[in-house]
Each structure stands twice: as structure tokens, then as C-alpha cells.
Amino acid sequence: MEIRIFKDIEKLNVEAAKYFIETIQKEKNPVLGLATGSTPIGMYKELIKSYQQGEISFVNTTTYNLDEYVGLDATHEQSYRYFMTENLFKHVNINPDNTHVPNGLGDSEKSCREYNQLLDDTQIDIQILGIGSNGHIAFNEPGTPFSAVTHVVNLTETSISDNSRFFESIDEVPKQAITMGLSNIMKAKKIILIALGENKAEAIRKLVQEDPNENTPCTILKNHPNVVILLDHAASSKLI
Ligand code: GLP
Looking at the annotation, which residues are catalytic? Predict the structure, then answer.
């Protein structure tokens, strides 16, 4: 696990985007693993800039998102499909048919099976991750088995409360989500995790100091051969 700490968030975003730009330039059919939340937005802006400057094209790119709320459709402003359209897809030349986000509507178990099938048939070249304040990655909450594949999850109070800032009231936050499992995530060739801000410092401390354990889902990343962690000063503040 390589850890890089940045004073300047703009620079962190540029560096995060560089890993993706390299993959998109190098692979004939790049497969990207994407995440939502406030953390990757700056990196997506850098990718859009790179596309606008003619450095990269998304025409042969396929994407898989980590998760989606149960019960929100693509037009709901807090759905993760909507987030991806607004923050990346509509600004670049990606074919919408090549973008995958778990389907939060209808039969959730069927959606999970279908998503696992898609993930079984491919390998993600590079995966971006944020981290929850409780150490979750995607929506793999504390206690999730490392062997988990895509599944329906009951969100913890911490995650509901953390994410309530995006909704008008806490009651509107969905109580369930569909998430890629930890074992799906670990199949990616390379993983980039970004953590920004003080409220991620404890999760980052656990990631660095604990042995892999299921109570702190992010610690599974220690078992992966190619992980880069990008931190701002606040997120790294409990490391020393
Ligand atoms: C949600 C997402 C995670 C994300 C986390 C952190 O729980 N499911 O994938 O990493 O939020 O979000 P933020 O980047 O807004 O802090």
C-alpha cells in the first residue's frame, strides 16, 4: 500500500486523475471502477478537463459503479446513477450503454445476481474508492465478510447520518443499498483510495495500523498488491 499525503487538494485530484488517464491511454478497452460521494468529484473534473483537451477519449471505455441506493430511480437527484451522469458521463464521449450502476429499482436480489454476472465476466483495470467515516468501502459496512459479492445492505446509522447532508431530511435517506462486495472490489488490477477531511482520519488510522479484519472493511485493501492511498493533511492527522 503506497500512501501519499497532499497539502493541496487540487494537486491530489490531478495526481488521482493521472492514474486513470494513463489507464485510459494504455488500454484498448479500458474498464474503470467508479465511486460516488463528494470525494471523487474533483478527480472527475480533472478527467473531464483531460477529455476536453483531447488527451483521452472514453469511446472504448466501460465503467462499473460501486453501489446504488435501493428505491431511487435514475432521475432522483440523490441516486448514484444521476450523480454519475451529472459529474462525469454527460461531459465526456462515453457510450451510456457502457456505463453500469446497480439497479436500485425492482427485484434487488435479481439486480445483485445480474451485477455479479457482469463483474464475473470482466476485470476492472482501475478502481477509485472513497471511504466511510466508519471504514466502509462502497457500502460494505463493518462486519461484512471479506468474501462478499454484490449484495443488498441495510445501511448503518452512521452511514445514514453521514449521507443525510445530501437529502432534505434524514428521513429521506434510503435505508438500503445495493453494493459491490469486498471480493468484487479486490479483483480490480489497481485501486486508488482518496480520503479528505478530519472525519476520515480515524478510518485512515485503522486502515494503516490494523491488520486486515472484517470490523474495519477498508483493511482488506492490505491484502491487495496494487493500492495507492491519497490523503489530505486532515485525513492523515491520526497517522503520526
Ligand atoms: C458513501 C458511498 C461510498 C463513499 C462514502 C464517502 O457511503 N457509498 O462509496 O466512499 O459515501 O462519501 P464522501 O466521499 O461523500 O465522504
Answer: 67, 134, 136, 141
Q: According to DSSP H, which parts of the chain are helical?
A: 9-26, 41-52, 80-87, 108-120, 157-163, 182-186, 201-209
Ligand 1 pocket check: which of 163, 166, 173, 179 to mutate, most ligand atoms within 8 Å of Cβ?
A: 163
Strands 176-179 and 151-154: antiparallel
Q: Beta strand 67-69 with 176-179: parallel, antiparallel or unpaired?
A: antiparallel
- Between CA 231 and CA 200 the distance in angstroms is 9
Q: Which atom of ligand 1 is nearest to the CA of 131?
A: 10
Please give all residues whose beta carbon lies within 6 A of any atom in ligand 1, as ranges: 35-39, 66-67, 130-132, 138-139, 159, 163
- The protein residue whose alpha carbon is closest to atom 2 in ligand 1 is 138
Q: What is the number of other CB atoms lying within 10 angstroms of the CB of residue 96?
A: 8
Block residue for cell numbers 445501511: 155
* Structure confidence at residue 240 as a pLDDT band (50, 70, 90): confident
Q: Give 49-105 pLDDT, tens digit per residue.
A: 999 999 999 999 999 999 999 999 999 999 999 999 999 999 999 999 999 999 999
106: left (phi over 0), alpha (psi -120 to 50) or beta: left
